[in-house]
């Protein structure tokens, strides 16, 4: 039994839970993208997307708890199962993911003797039990037979998780020939997807590592949600074109210094914007060009806001070191007090009012 006096052991178990939530988010979203292209399954796809959002909340709660305990949330993930099964098979794969999660959470409840942590895990378990029942229903609704075993079997370490579902005996989808131009478009969109995935993970980790900073809570968390939307738009387009959205997990590095963090974010946004513009100029498909134009416009806006925020942080740094007010006269009337420059909080409020 682990108690609160051994936080490293608690962190290790929460990190394992976090890897599972990360995998579930990606797996469920990939299945949503596949099912959205199947007539009559739009409602189920929307419901599975909502389940993915609930897993994102679990990811957030676990990450915040790990930080409170003195750890850094892992961005590794467990194996995901997204092969080209028909919809009932996809739902069975998701059911199996819930079974693994339930087994691991129940094991951790039994091992951890910290009421605050076990209360969190039981709260998450209440969702996972509900998700399990939902996936059982979705198997039937998509024309499959649940044929479920009784009880949830405990699983071993992540390395022992099977790489395929023996129960389903799924066959990999037979790749169909696509025109070279379509293949090139899919390759470029998948490059964009990996970039969006990296950006989402970066913003989330920054938010978790700076829990008391208004920049992280009011801008970075909101920013990560928009990047997730871009990711979804791109993946849906890849599926629509007959391709497989990339699930390659990118490497992520994060600075603990707010100014350095935002400077790195700005550089990333500039690089991604250049890639989007290059792809937009290369791709002939008008619908894809329109999508890339929309995302590029959003990126331009985010780039501008990051530049403004960095300017404010630089002015505040000068003011603190010299004792002089460096706020431009045109902006002084917007400060919270006469003669005082913008605070990060007031600037965020300004951005939110504009948005």
What would you note in describing this structure?
The protein has two domains: 2-158, Ferritin, core subunit, four-helix bundle (Ferritin, Up-down Bundle), CATH 1.20.1260.10; 180-354, Ferritin. A two-stranded parallel ribbon has the order 1-2. The radius of gyration is 23 Å and the shape is flat. Residues 148-175 and 324-355 have low confidence and may be disordered. α2 packs antiparallel against α4 (115-141) and α6 packs antiparallel against α8 (286-322). Helix content is 68%, strand content 1%. With 355 residues, the protein is an all-alpha fold. The chain has helices at residues 7-35, 42-68, 87-111, 115-141, 180-209, 214-240, 258-282, 286-322, 329-332, 344-354; strands at residues 2-3, 112-113. It has ten helices and two strands. The longest helix has 37 residues, at 286-322.
Sequence-ordered SSE layout with sheet pairings:
Blueprint: E1 2-3, H1 7-35, H2 42-68, H3 87-111, E2 112-113, H4 115-141, H5 180-209, H6 214-240, H7 258-282, H8 286-322, H9 329-332, H10 344-354
Parallel strand pairs: 1-2
Helix pairs in contact: 1-2, 1-3, 1-6, 2-4, 2-5, 3-4, 5-6, 5-7, 6-8, 7-8
| Residue-averaged pLDDT | 80
Give the CATH level 1 class of the largest domain. Answer: Mainly Alpha
Number of H/I helices: 10
Number of strands: 2
How much beta, percentage-wise?
A: under 5%
Could you state the CATH homologous superfamily of the largest domain?
Ferritin, core subunit, four-helix bundle
CATH architecture of the largest domain: Up-down Bundle
Pattern of helices and strands: EHHHEHHHHHHH
Helix content: 55-70%
Count of all domains = 2
**Which term fits the overall shape?**
flat
Largest beta sheet: strand ordering? 1-2
């Amino acid at each position: 039994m682990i108690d609160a006096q051994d936080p490293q052991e608690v962190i290790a178990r929460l990190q394992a839970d976090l890897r599972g939530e990360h995998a579930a988010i990606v797996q469920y979203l990939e299945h949503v993208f596949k099912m959205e292209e199947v007539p009559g399954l739009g409602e189920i796809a929307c419901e599975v997307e909502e389940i993915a959002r609930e897993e994102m909340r679990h990811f957030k709660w676990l990450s915040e708890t790990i930080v409170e305990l003195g750890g850094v949330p892992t961005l590794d993930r467990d194996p995901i199962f997204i092969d080209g099964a028909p919809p009932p098979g996809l739902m069975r794969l998701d059911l199996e993911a819930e079974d693994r999660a339930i087994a691991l959470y129940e094991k951790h409840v039994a091992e951890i003797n910290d009421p605050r942590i076990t209360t969190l895990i039981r709260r998450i378990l209440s969702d996972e039990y509900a998700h399990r029942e939902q996936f059982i229903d979705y198997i039937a609704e998509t024309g499959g037979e649940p044929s479920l075993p009784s009880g949830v079997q405990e699983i071993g370490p992540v390395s022992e998780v099977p790489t395929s579902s023996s129960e389903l005996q799924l066959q990999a989808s037979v790749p169909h020939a696509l025109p070279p131009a379509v293949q090139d478009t899919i390759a470029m969109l998948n490059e964009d997807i990996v970039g969006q995935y990296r950006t989402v993970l970066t913003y989330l980790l920054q938010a978790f590592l700076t829990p008391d900073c208004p920049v992280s809570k009011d801008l970075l968390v909101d920013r990560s949600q928009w990047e997730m939307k871009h990711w979804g738009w791109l993946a849906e387009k890849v599926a629509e074109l007959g391709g497989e959205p990339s699930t390659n997990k990118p490497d992520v590095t994060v600075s603990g210094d707010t100014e350095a963090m935002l400077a790195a974010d700005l550089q990333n946004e500039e690089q991604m914007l250049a890639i989007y513009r290059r792809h937009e100029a290369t791709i002939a498909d008008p619908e894809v060009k329109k999508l890339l134009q929309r995302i590029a416009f959003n990126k331009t806006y985010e780039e501008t806001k990051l530049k403004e925020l960095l300017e404010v942080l630089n002015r505040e740094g000068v003011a603190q070191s010299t004792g002089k007010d460096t706020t431009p006269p045109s902006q002084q009337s917007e400060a919270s007090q006469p003669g005082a420059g913008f605070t990060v909080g007031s600037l965020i409020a300004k951005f939110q009012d504009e948005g």
